[in-house]
Inverse folding.
């Protein structure tokens, strides 16, 4: 495999394991802890959190795929910036599980768990932004990125970044609205396509 | 890697992790909880459920492989429909473990756990159907799919879909017969090959 | 990816996850359960079992790699026979953990756990044998396999098969000798190379 | 896939799973065990240990990638030496979790857990060294490695090896300083690039 191939293979492995580990947060205590239907119902935050985090990691994977495709030079610095992104991706199952566990606990714990969740998402977005702008600034992309495209991409990264910040702050008042905001960001990124960095599409 | 290559690599990663996590549902409480032979015997639903879910995920993987091979265009929509399929695949270890845990619990819990199991299988089948018909309708396959083949594939997807629905309903009367139905669907899909979408076989 | 490529990618994914999950059997109860050194010492069967199972899965991976390289035709039957092999590979972490947990429990439980461990290894060896002979008999290998080579391979598979059977039987008298036998089989397979099926070596 | 390709694919799979399993050591006991903020604060060693082990596995992956790229011959011995390296990589999540759990426990347990952590890192470094020097001595690299480069690489492996040994010894006096040393080794390996074995860079 060439450099890009192995960067993709390793990253895809991490994305695939992280997205699958999300389901470990779904469990019921087992027989002897009340009716199963009630247990499943009480754990609704886990199911909603699973869907949001699944699609968020999925969106990152799709965008990461398009990003790597546009890269011409795989430098050692790029590999380490990519590791920083993966560091946050791997934290998502933990942050998701903790948030789901505490969302309905009420009080300060709900706020803290939502802030933790938002912070991991914020970190992941910032790491992706850093990876992207590093490659663009160094001219490591296959095609030069025109200024207007660069502006639109900057706007797009900033939108997510601000939305996650809003979610963290809102979480101190209403964790459920905060969760809704983070879910809407996932929907936004699914619907609104990352502008291409100049490579022709298939 | 090209688009198809990376779609396969990521999907294969998720299939591989999900199929391996199935074994996490197999465990015994350890020394001090009665004779090991008795513990293993009491947990027979876990072993049967493991085999059924292992081959079901395996069949999906084989069919997914043949499907991707027949695809010429990897659009962003296809990537997201594929994510929906994986969302259900990742739920299979959870649904399998919960079902095995409650199968012999009796009462409403057995019914609910079997309905959950059947619903995840139903969702997975529907997602695969959606993925398939999206690609065929958009003409994104390597070869045009003739009408008679399209009919036979529709029939095949419908058969699974109806069988899982039957399994969910039967589960409210006899969870064990329901499990047998789901096992038979796996056998059916192993034996009855997915018709090719026009690509010559190796 | 072509058929062989994706068969390898999926199988490698399962091998990689299964070999890594082996380490989940290594854990200590945590602070408040006696001195850490004592806990680690009491759990010596877990560490020995980890090393044996790690190298056994590793050997299977190496041999699987050489096997797939010698295959010219990837039929649907081959894919399913490969799934049967993986079914047993995925059981290895469970069987290893259970065996390590009960090895020093004494009495019937030690025997049963060792028999379970041996049976999973036996099943894995038999599945690999089935996969191999299916491909050879169907003439699906890149080069024809000469009779003397076929005999030597048959002998080699039989050796493992008989050794695992011996380990299961010995396990009813001395689980520790049984574990030693299974460890020696791993060493034997590491040292004694699978004969090539006709393809020139790099 | 060719020999190098599959060696990379399997190794990348193991690296990806091991690096993702690190996050399983991050968990909080859940509602009813005191304030979440306090629980997270008490578990600071887990978070620091996560970051150190994440980047250590990441560095090994980057270096492994550069190493495999420089290899021309994939012998069976190389595959098994690679397995020894992976054996230690897979132990890292276990060693990391145990160390983080006991770091602040005080007394002999802290020392033992830090020695275990250091020993796994030492074993991993030694295994990588063995893999590297085996390939160089056998002349299995794409380009001959000049003497001065061989010396600088030897120095580099020795530096890590001695630092981990120091960390193990220091761990018996101050586990926290020991952890700092291991963290600094990761930083050193990130900053100081592995000398190339003769292959031109992209």
């Amino acid at each position: 495999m060439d450099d890009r191939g192995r960067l993709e293979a390793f990253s895809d492995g991490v994305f695939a394991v992280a997205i699958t580990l999300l389901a470990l947060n779904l469990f019921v205590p087992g027989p002897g802890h009340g009716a199963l239907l009630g247990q499943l119902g009480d754990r609704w935050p886990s199911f909603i959190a699973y869907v949001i985090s699944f699609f968020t990691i999925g969106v990152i994977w799709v965008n990461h795929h398009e990003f790597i495709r546009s890269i011409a030079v795989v430098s050692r610095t790029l590999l380490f910036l990519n590791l920083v992104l993966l560091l946050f991706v791997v934290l998502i199952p933990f942050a998701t599980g903790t948030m789901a566990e505490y969302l309905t606990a009420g009080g300060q714990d709900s706020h803290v768990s939502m802030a933790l969740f938002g912070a991991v998402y914020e970190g992941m977005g910032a790491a992706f932004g850093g990876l992207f702008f590093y490659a663009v600034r160094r001219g490591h992309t296959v095609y030069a990125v025109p200024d207007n495209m660069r502006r639109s991409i900057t706007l797009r990264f900033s939108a997510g970044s601000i939305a996650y910040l809003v979610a963290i702050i809102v979480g101190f008042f209403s964790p459920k609205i905060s969760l809704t905001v983070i879910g809407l960001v996932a929907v936004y990124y699914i619907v609104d396509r990352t502008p291409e960095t100049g490579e022709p599409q298939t």
